[in-house]
Design a protein that fits this description.
By secondary structure, this protein is an alpha/beta fold. The chain contains six helices and twelve strands. A hairpin with a 3-residue loop joins strand 4 and strand 5. Helix 5 packs parallel to helix 6. The longest helix has 14 residues. The protein starts with a strand and ends with a strand.
Length: 267
């Protein structure tokens, strides 16, 4: 299992037929062993949207799926549900576990639920979540690529996105990287990019990378950037991962690789 597909912000209820079908074709051709979905699975946390998401993931037939809730997966207009059962739909249709972990010989992936029912859009990570994630990372086996997944980003490349950054990120990023994290995957802002975490967090003791996914299949694209997904390919000894960005091409009706970058991992 050396291929990981990272998608985000599917926003079921706003999905487009072309990218949805093309993503299924990409899965068939690239055969990822693990799919990571970093939040905002639905547009408004409605039953039919969760049901469509569940059917889509089942039809993809990927060996393993790790999904996280995003702020859109908590009811917005149903105030009783938001207060008393904010994750009811998510747990019924997608996963009982809000902070899943996936582990195999190649990957250790730790999900961190950064949504809060008292926040509309912003994400937050608590001291307890930071410490639990540190313990999971420190228990990684030799050779595993170690990944933490949040919905909101920890690094912004545009000034206008700084307001969307994860609350509590400074302590979290430094603790997670020190504990061995190689990648921090996220979504939320519908903007794909790969950056060294040292750009925003000088003095980190080792190299680690922020990998952001765009919106995979929704019409809610941003700044004219096409629907996009990421693929991480781990090399044999785990010293390097190839990060690839695949964008939807309306002319061909397929996702096409537009960028690839080898990312050295600190070992």
């Amino acid at each position: 299992m050396t291929v990981l597909l990272h998608i985000s912000d599917t926003h079921f209820g706003t999905e487009l037929a072309g990218p949805t079908q093309a993503l299924a074709a990409l899965v068939r051709s690239e055969r990822p062993g693990l799919l990571v979905l970093s939040g905002d699975v639905t547009q408004r946390a409605r039953r039919r949207q969760f049901r469509a998401a569940r059917q889509f993931l089942d039809d993809l037939d990927v060996p393993a799926v790790l999904a996280l809730p995003g702020n859109h997966d908590i009811p917005l207009f149903n105030l009783l549900a938001r207060v008393f059962n904010p994750y009811g739909g998510y747990r019924r249709w997608l996963s009982r576990e809000l902070e899943p972990t996936h582990e195999d010989e190649h990957w250790l992936v730790v999900g961190v639920d950064t949504t809060r029912r008292y926040r509309h859009k912003d994400g937050e990570v608590s001291r307890g979540q930071v410490e639990r994630t540190v313990q999971r990372l420190r228990a990684a086996r030799p050779g595993q690529v170690r990944i933490v997944v949040t919905h909101q980003p920890v690094l912004a490349v545009r000034d206008e996105d700084r307001r969307n950054l994860l609350h509590g990120r400074e302590a979290a990023v430094r603790a997670w990287v020190e504990a061995g994290a190689d990648f921090l995957l996220g979504g939320h802002i519908h903007l794909p990019y790969v950056r060294s975490l040292r750009e925003a967090y000088p003095g980190l003791p080792r190299e680690a990378w922020a990998v952001q996914a765009g919106t995979a299949i929704s019409h809610r694209i941003r700044d004219g950037i096409a629907n996009s997904v990421n693929i991480l390919r781990r090399n044999g000894d785990g010293s390097t991962c190839m990060a690839e960005r695949w964008d939807w091409d309306g002319r061909t009706g397929a996702f096409t690789k537009v960028l690839q970058r080898p990312l050295p991992l600190s070992r």
